[in-house]
Amino acid sequence: MSLAHKFLIISALSLAPSSVSAAEPAARNAKGIGIVFFVLVVLVSLAITYWSARRTKTADEFYRAGGKITGFQNGLAIAGDFMSAATLLGITGLVYMTGFDTIIYILAPLVGMSVIVFLIAEPFRELGRFTITDVVSFRLREQPIRIFSAIASLFVVVLYLVAQLVGAGALIQLLFGLPYIAAVFIIGFLMMIYVVFGGMTATTWVQITKAVILIFALTFMAGAVLARFDFNLTGMYRQVADAHPLGVSVFEPGGLLKDPISTLSLALALVFGFVGLPHVLMRLYTVPNAHEARRSVVYSAGIFGYVNVLIFFIIAFGAYALLADKPEYRDAAGGLLGGSNMVAMHLAEEIGGEAFLGFMAAVAFATILAVVAGLTIAGASAISHDLYAGAIKKGEVSEQAEVHVSKIATVGVSVFAMALAVLFEKQNIAFIASLVFAISASTTFPLLILALYWRGLTTRGAVIGGSLGLVVAVSLIVLGPAVWVGILGAGKPIFPYAYPGIVSIPISFAAIILISLLDKSEDAKISKEKFDRYLLS
Amino acid sequence: MNVERSTGKGFAASLQYRRRLGVRFAAIILAFYFGFSALLAFFPKFLALGAPISIGFALILIHLAAVVILNITYMNAAKSAGAGETSNRQ
User: Fold this and answer.
1) pLDDT band at residue A533 using 50, 70 and 90 as cut-offs
2) Under an 8 A CB cutoff, do B72 and A298 touch?
3) Interchain contact, B26 vs A118, CB within 8 Å
4) Among the ranges A81-95, A473-487, B21-35, which has the highest mean pLDDT value?
5) Which residues of B touch A115 (CB under 8 A)?
6) What value does the mean pLDDT take over residues A384-394?
7) At the N or C end, where does chain A have fewer CB atoms within 10 A?
8) Which among B37, B56, B71 has CB closest to A301?
9) How far apart are CA A393 and CA A231, in angstroms?
């Protein structure tokens, strides 16, 4: 498995399990003061949930926090979805190990956020109500497209959730010394409580609280690192170049991405996969209007950019300069204790002692909780709003019944994801993270963009073409190196690239467009009329 | 779905203007991103020139600045073209 591929797990917040083992004392964990901060995080998040529960009665309040979140607050929440343990631990570790190439994982969400601002936010907020499927189905025949779009959303959300729970279980095990199953159960149980009782309000405020703490913690960390080098960034870089095994090449491309086609494929999947993520888009409904929705994404881009600039330019390289010659952070083989995912934690200990290490471990725990809760509510909404209320009951259902089904769906999604996370504990789950971005970029993204910007889209084209995109993306992952060689143990992959986006995204677009063009049905005419009525006038 | 029709030629014109503007801005930012990705994929040596403070680092900063500038410019242009005056049509 390549480093780039390993990182795709991290980018889905799941931290490469291969680097984390219960058997080996991987790192000094944050047992002492860390447990105090850990308990504090749980108590604060439960207090937020209690406060939110009293404000969550209707479907509107459950799915979109009553539309009462401001643009800035929502910007923090959206940025929080991508300032996860992946950012704090994964990106820091990857820059530390491989340097320059990691930037593609930072630029992709920023560009994705811009695409949402320019193309998606306003029509999405104007035409939809609670979910991504609302928007895709506004001009198409509702039942088939709701079923297909909800299933695609569920695929993305549940797979993302499983990948995160597996990584999170390993991470909590590492940080606090808890058994893997206990870690998965604690995270799964808490995310279920947040969503069942507090709905989107609790999910959003837990995310906002965590984002604010993370921003201040990383700002402090970056300041402390720079202070160690008398605020001389170039001097720090020269020290890194002298100490790093890659030498000055750590500041050059090539440390992570070796193959040009895979690089482009990854770039495509990351940016378009991001734009199609249901749990991110769902947040556009939590603000009062389209203008605030757009503002919130601009804020999120600014916040995400700030945090990642700190990590990329200062924290990760600074960590190398500060930790490289310290034997206390090395294992017997000379490697970093706990693997590269622990770079940020070691740096925290180096600059702030055990207290700061414990605090940062609790922050990492909070980042996991906040992100999985957002995913859970997106999955529950796809079941209750899109499948139950929209496709099965055809809109003829009371609000109370829909909220009730949402809560049952939340429990179902949580238990299902926890069970899969336990089953996959020892598996290489790189392919799951690849699937998330591949399916999102090849299914939900083409459907959404064509529904909003192409008059010719028809129900038949959307369902058949979208299904083809889904099948191709999944098949190419299975036939590629991650599953065909990594899991099935075959000698040579049938599809040579780890990321299928460069093939599956064009196939999905082409199939949807071609089938729509061939569709001369009455249904196709209605779809075009609705496009003219709702998007052009 | 219970989507109500919006009315008025002024509304339609401003909606169309914002859509065209959005497409142009998206095209610019995607061109930046995929241009950078193509350099990373096919011309990594070019990005490495001048390391440790390399051309690649400079391009990253330009890219980040472009994201910020384009977002702010688009927000202002969209606002002056009527964004925020529409209500949720649900």
Assistant:
1) confident
2) yes
3) yes
4) B21-35
5) 26, 29-30
6) 91
7) C
8) B71
9) 62
Inter-chain residue contact B79 with A107, CB threshold 8 Å: no
Q: Which among A208, A174, A176, A179 has a CA at the least distance from the CA of A194?
A: A208
Give the integer Cα–Cα distance in Å for B21 and B27.
10
Pairwise pLDDT comparison (A428 vs A212), residue with the higher score: A212
Query: What residues in A contact B78, CB-CB < 8 Å?
Result: 122, 294
A448-473 average pLDDT score: 95
ipTM: 0.85
Q: How far is A260 from chain B (nearest CA, A)?
A: 4
Interface of A with B in 431-490 (CB under 8 A): 453
Checking if the pLDDT of A315 tops 80, the result is yes
User: Coil, helix or strand for A323?
Assistant: helix
Q: Using the beta-carbon criterion (under 8 Å), do A126 and B1 form an inter-chain contact?
A: no
pLDDT at A518 over 60: yes
What average pLDDT does range A60-79 have in this prediction? Answer: 93
Instruction: Name the 3-class secondary structure at A336.
Output: strand
Chain A contact for B44 (CB, 8 A cutoff): yes
- Per-residue three-class SS string for B7-55: CCHHHHHHHHHHHHHHHHHHHHHHHHHHHHHHHHHHCHHHHHCCCCCCH
Q: Rounded to an integer, what is the distance from CA A128 to the centroid of its chain?
A: 22
Q: Output the DSSP codes for A168-229.
A: HHHHHHHHH---HHHHHHHHHHHHHHHHHHHHHHHHHHHHHHHHHHHHHHHHHHHHHHHHHT
CA distance A12 to A159: 10
State whether residue A116 sits within 8 Å of chain B by CB.
Answer: no
pLDDT-derived band at A458 (thresholds 50, 70, 90) equals: very high
| Domain range A3-536, CATH class | mainly alpha
Burial of residue A28 (number of CB atoms within 10 Å: 0-12, 13-18, 19+): middle
Which tops the pLDDT comparison, A527 or A177? A527
Whose tokens are 């995912």? That residue is A341
Identify the pLDDT of residue A24.
43
* Interfacial B residues in 47-66 facing A (CB < 8 Å): 47-48, 51-54, 56-57, 60, 63-64
The segments of chain B whose pLDDT lies below 50 read: 1-6, 85, 87-90
> Does A536 contact B75 at a Cβ distance shorter than 8 Å?
no
Nearest by CB: A122 against B5, B51, B83: B83
Residues sharing a CB contact under 8 Å with residue A89, sequence separation 6 or more, in sequence order:
A10, A15, A171, A341, A342, A343, A344, A345, A364
Instruction: Determine the distance in angstroms separating the CA of A294 from the nearest CA of chain B, rounded to an integer.
Output: 8
- So where are chain A's domains? 3-536
Please give the interface size between A and B, counted as residue pairs whose CB atoms are below 8 Å apart: 160
A103 neighbourhood in chain B, CB within 8 Å: 56, 60
User: Percent of chain A beyond pLDDT 90?
Assistant: 54
Rounded to an integer, what distance in angstroms lies between the CA atom of residue A88 and that of residue A180?
Answer: 21
| Nearest-angstrom CA–CA distance, B74 and A116 | 12
**Contact: A241, B52; criterion CB under 8 Å:** yes
Contact A302 B68 (CB under 8 A): yes
Asked whether the predicted pLDDT for residue A188 surpasses 90, the reply is yes
Q: Alpha-carbon distance A99 to A251, whole Å?
A: 6
Contacts of A536 in chain B (CB under 8 A): 12, 15-16
